[in-house]
User: What shape does this take?
Amino acid sequence: MTVPVDGWDFSWLDGRATEERPSWGYQRLLAGQLSQATAALDIQTGGGEVLAGAGAENFPPTLVATEGWPPNVAKATALLHPLGAVVVAVAEDAPLPFADGAFDLVTSRHPARVQWTEIARVLGPGATYLAQHVGGGTNVEITEFFMGSLQTSNGRHHEVEVERAKEAGLEIIQCRNERLKLEFFDVGATVFFLRKVLWTVPDFSVERYRQRLMELHNQIEQEGVFRSSMSRTLFELRKPPAG
Assistant: This one.
């Protein structure tokens, strides 16, 4: 059976893997910020599940979401259009196709690439950026199991991202980072995860890594679990008011 891997629905892993959640509750914070906005932009929305989960009753009069992967664009459009949000296809490394200062709120959950200057550009004076980022060293245990020891970049470390946000002209309201647990209870759950979260093992395929998958299966059979770790960072930033 082939399991679809578009969007950000991980419910197929129920009972087969567990992911520790950050303490702050991003979706609840997102709902609160949306309810106070008049024009909001959600960047790299995936299949739109997180944005939709914030509740259409909290959506501002103008709500736009961007996404770059065609299967996710289609999924997000089907989910968000009936709720009143517009989905725009934009590659994650492309400039945002919006006017300067167009939004009083920009949000993103787990953006693959963060374009700080573009975020700052489309925010209006006094506007907010609320996001949950994947931090440095996330799932390094999985990556190194399949690919060997790596020289990892610190580009997604929260302290590095804070400096980049400041360089783009944004003020730090809060930056909170937590290290969290991820556990897999069978090799099929790991395959699903690697097919969905493509950057963990960029060249992953079952055929290419069949031997390592067999070794992982044997390890889980013996130990009952394969453990990895994640880093999550909550950012609440502000563009300084005019003047």
Observations:
- The longest strand covers residues 171-184.
